[in-house]
Design a protein that fits this description.
368 residues; seven-stranded mixed beta sheet; two-stranded antiparallel ribbon; Butyryl-Coa Dehydrogenase, subunit A, domain 1; Butyryl-CoA Dehydrogenase, subunit A, domain 3; 52% helix; alpha+beta
């Protein structure tokens, strides 16, 4: 299977790498980490102005139609620089509206989502869900809309968003719902995460919302599969950036008159990092291809997410180890890759949960 990128995606990668490299310097990251919103608004505006956010959207929504593949290219470059912008939840929210939203929802929200002037986010997680993949948050039909009740945990980059896409359970099955951030019945509680992102817990008490697609028709599976794949793409970039720091450090530092990179034990550590990074790359693009083709999607996504969690965490741990004391010094940039790797490894469920679900698929005869 050929996972090489086409001309459009390569051009997207080069432009994204240039912008992220110019903006996400260690000095800039320190400034953003102490800012009230913890988001690099200048970088976000430049991504929108360059057309990188819109590039993922369909052509009839003003985009270039690069879809999830284009988003994963952007996310990998973001992960390399651990750039503090809400790319995966905002763009996935826009893609969900483009694929499943009503004409009114698309007309009202996609233009501003495409240029970055208004942001979406996703409320997919909960505290100890009753059953895997079944939200405790419930949605009850009310007139032409729905009323949401429940609690969503760690909604990413909640500050400054305009709308939230919320998963909830209905009598017809699970559904995805569009909620205004300031809708009646919503209460936001700030929750700082490992990556310094200002997430929030969202309490809903009969909050009015609109359905995005019909409940019970697979829209929740559509968004969660793409969210797991998007996180795997960010993690791939995170580990590549971490290994780059390690290579620079080990090539310039000496011990006993020799560069640290020439010691066999260190070489073994980096070789293991390379193996796991390549496994993450292959399984990520297998998942992207499966989602595009609609074949064995859940299995491919779970494998990619498992490698992102297990392999990604292994890599950032090794990189931290080979840096020694410098690795835990917050004046040195590699600690951010460790924090991001740790956060991503547990978002939307950890590696153990992914393996458990893969086991269920095998038992059900749905995995090969």
């Amino acid at each position: 299977m050929d996972f090489s990128l086409g001309e459009e995606l390569e051009e997207l990668r080069q432009l994204a790498r240039e912008i992220f490299t110019d903006h996400a310097t260690p000095e800039r990251l320190r400034t953003v980490e102490t800012s009230p919103a913890r988001v690099d608004d200048k970088l976000w505006a430049d991504l929108g102005a360059a057309g990188l956010i819109a590039a993922t959207l369909p052509e009839d929504a003003g985009g270039a139609g690069l879809d999830l593949a284009g988003l994963c290219v952007l996310l990998e470059e973001q992960g390399r620089r651990v750039a503090p912008v809400p790319l995966w939840p905002a763009v996935l929210g826009a893609l969900a509206l483009a694929a499943h939203g009503t004409a009114g929802q698309r007309a009202a929200l996609l233009p501003s989502a495409a240029d970055g002037s208004a942001r979406l986010t996703l409320a997919l997680e909960e505290f100890a869900p009753a059953r895997p993949r079944t939200p405790r948050t419930v949605a009850v039909a009310s007139g032409d809309g729905w009323l949401l009740t429940g609690t969503k945990a760690a909604v990413p980059t909640a500050a400054g968003v305009h709308h939230v896409l919320v998963t909830a359970t209905t009598d017809a099955g699970t559904g995805l719902f569009l909620l205004r951030r300031d809708a009646p019945g919503t209460t936001w509680t700030p929750a700082e995460t490992t990556t310094h992102d200002l997430a929030a817990h969202l309490d809903l008490d009969r909050a009015p919302a609109e359905a995005v697609g019909a409940p019970g028709t697979g829209v929740v599976e559509w968004i969660t599969g793409r969210a797991r794949t998007a996180l795997a793409a960010v993690q791939l970039g995170v580990v590549q950036g971490a290994v780059r720091h390690a290579a620079d450090h080990l090539g310039s530092r000496e011990q006993f008159g020799r560069p640290l990179a020439t010691f066999q034990a260190v070489q073994h550590q980096l070789a293991d990092c390379l193996i796991e990074t390549e496994a993450m790359r292959v399984t990520l693009w297998q998942a992207v291809t499966a989602l595009a083709d609609g074949v064995d999607t859940e299995q491919a996504v779970l494998v990619a997410k498992w490698w992102a969690g297990e392999g990604g965490l292994n890599v950032v741990h090794r990189v931290q180890h080979v840096h020694g004391g410098i690795g835990v010094d917050t004046d040195y940039p590699v600690h951010r890759h460790f924090l991001w790797g740790k956060q991503i490894a547990t978002t939307l469920g950890g590696a153990a949960g992914d393996l458990a679900r893969l086991g269920d698929l095998l038992a059900e005869g749905k995995a090969t």
